[in-house]
Amino acid sequence: MAERRISSIDGKLAEEFAIPSHVEDVKEKMADFAMRHTEAGRRVVLITSGGTKVPLESRTVRFLDNFSSGRRGAASAEYFIESGYAVIFLHRHRSLYPYTRMFLTINMLDALQFKVTDGTAGNPSDVVVDQQMLPNIVKVLKQYQEVKEGGLLLPIEFNTLSEYLHLLKAAAQALHPIGSKAMFYLAAAVSDFYIPASEMPEHKIQSSNGPLQLSLNMVPKILSPLVKDWAPQAFVISFKLETDESILLDRACRALDTYRHQAVVANVLDSRRGQVVVVTPETQVELRLTEEEVQKGVEIEERIVSNLTSAHTKFINPVSLHLPET
Amino acid sequence: MAERRISSIDGKLAEEFAIPSHVEDVKEKMADFAMRHTEAGRRVVLITSGGTKVPLESRTVRFLDNFSSGRRGAASAEYFIESGYAVIFLHRHRSLYPYTRMFLTINMLDALQFKVTDGTAGNPSDVVVDQQMLPNIVKVLKQYQEVKEGGLLLPIEFNTLSEYLHLLKAAAQALHPIGSKAMFYLAAAVSDFYIPASEMPEHKIQSSNGPLQLSLNMVPKILSPLVKDWAPQAFVISFKLETDESILLDRACRALDTYRHQAVVANVLDSRRGQVVVVTPETQVELRLTEEEVQKGVEIEERIVSNLTSAHTKFINPVSLHLPET
Questions:
Q1: Which residues between 198 and 257 in chain B have a beta carbon less than 8 angstroms from any beta carbon of chain A?
Q2: With an 8 Å Cβ cutoff, is B122 touching chain A?
Q3: Which tens digit of pLDDT belongs to each residue from A108-154?
Q4: CATH value at residue B139
Q5: Residue range A227-244, pLDDT digits in tens
Q6: Does a structural domain hold residue B313?
Q7: Measured between CA atoms, how close is A91 to chain B, in angstroms?
Q8: Does A209 reside within a domain?
Q9: What's the EC number here (chains A, B) (predicted)?
C-alpha cells in the first residue's frame, strides 16, 4: 500500500511536472559536494527556501505564488555554516540569500560613495561603501568570503513548483550515500495546488472571456517518498505555517504521523519571527525570543538551528544518549 | 451611460478593494512634486511598473501574480529623466528600480573587496567596489546621485492589486492640475482577475479539504475613469502584452477604441526586449533593435521613450505641427 503510493507519486512527478533539463547535472554536483564535505568530517544540510511559482498558462504570464521572502532559509543557512555544516541552498530565484540578505532594506546606490584615491589626474575614483549606511559590512563580507573560499555553500535555484519538486528529489537521491549525516530542512513555502500541464491553456488567458474559473489539483506529497524511499536514513525537518494558531500543533503532529520524519517546525504567520514550536514524536519545544533579544537583533533561526543540530547529533549517535555525562 | 460606468468603477474601487491608509499623504506628495517640476519647466511622467499581487486569503499566504520583473518600467524611468522629465515611479515592492537594476544579475558581495587605507593599526578597512565586476558603477552612481540631488524621481511602492488601483487613482488626481504636461506610462502588469474581499476566506486554505476551486471576478477597467474623469487632459499610454502575436494588434486597436487614450505599446512576451509596436489611432510604428544594437547594449526602452516624448510634444502643442520647419 505504502509502496503503491510512493510509486504513484514518482509517476505523477514524471508525467505532470516538466523535468528541468539540468536536473542530472545538478544531482551530480550535489552528490560531489555532499561526499567531499562528509569526507572532511562535516555534516550536510539541504535547505529549501522561498515560495514556488505555479503557472496558469504554459507560456506563463500569470501564476499562483506563496508568500515567502526566503528570510528564514537564508538566515538559517548562515547559522548552519557557523555550526560546522556544509549547506546546499535550494532556493527560489531572487529570494533572500545568505549574507547578501543584509542589503534587503537598502538601495545599494545609497550606500556607495566616491573616494578619490590620489591626486593623479585621470586616476579613476574608488567607489566605497558608506559604513554608516551598512555598519555590518566588514563583518558580513569577511564571513561571506570565508564561506566562498571554503566552498561551504552550494546554491541551486528554482522558480516553478515543477523545478522545485524535481530538484528536491534529485537532492534526496544525491544525499542518500551519506545516510544519517544529511539533514533536510524544508523551509520553502511549497504550493499545495497546481494546474496539470494537460489542462493548462497555452496562451495568456483573455480577460474578455469573462470571470475566471480555476480548478487546481493537489500537489503530490513529496515528503512521503523522500522519507521512505529517496533518503530513508536522513534527518528530515518539515515546516508548518498556519494563520490560525488553534489548528497549528494538531497539523504538525498529523504531519509527523503521516510522513514519519523527525521534526516539524510549527509557526504562525504573524509571530513567526519571534516564536516557533519544534515538534517531534516525543516532544514539543517552544522557542521564543524576548523583546530585549529582538531589539538586540537576535534571530529565532539561531535557536532553531541550535535545537536541530543537537537533535541531529543524537540522531546520528543514538547510543550516546545512554552514556553517563562526564 | 459612460458616466454611469465611471461612477460604478469608482464605487467598486471603494467597496471591493481595501484603501491603503497612506493614500492621501501620497497624493499630496505627488501633487507637490508635479507642481514643483512643472513650474521649473519640466514635464512629469507617471510610470507604473512591476506585477500586482492578488491575495487568495485575507491573512495572505497564497496569491495570484503577474509575470513582471519591472525591467521595462525601471529602464524607461532612466530614459525619461535623460529626456528632461521628472518621474513618479509607482512600482511593485522589490521590482527592478532605476539605476539599481544594474545589480540584478550579480551578488553584491561578489563585487566588494577590502582595501586597507593606511598602515595605522586599528584603522578600519575601506570596502570598495571591484570595478571589473561592475564596470559601469562610476557612471551609474554619478547619474543616480544627480537624479537624487535634483529630486527628479519620486518612488511610490505598491504590493497588492488594491494598493495599485487606489494609488493610480490618487496619482491621476494629483496630476490633474498640470493638464497635458502629464504623461501616464502604464507599464505595470496588472491582474485582470481578483477575489472580492467578501468572498475571501480569512485563513490559509487547507489542502486537506481537497482540490481547489477558485472563482475570480474581473478587475474594473480603471483606464476608463482615468482617461475620462481623473486626468482628462493627460497624455496616456497603456501597454499590451500577449503571447499570441496574431491577436496583438487587434487587441491594441480595440483598447484605443474603448478607452480613447493616446497610444498603446504592443509587445509579445518572447520578443519584448527587442521589438514593440507603438499603436495610435492613426499610426502603427514598429520599433526594433538590430542584433548589433542588442549586442552593444542598446535598450528598446530608449526608442520607446524617444518616440513617446516626441508625440507628447506634439500633443501639448498641436499647432506647431502646422508651422513651417525652420
A1: 202-205, 207, 210-219, 241-244
A2: no
A3: 999 999 987 665 555 568 899 999 999 999 999 999 999 999 999 99
A4: 3.40.50.10300
A5: 999 999 999 999 998 888
A6: no
A7: 14
A8: no
A9: 6.3.2.51
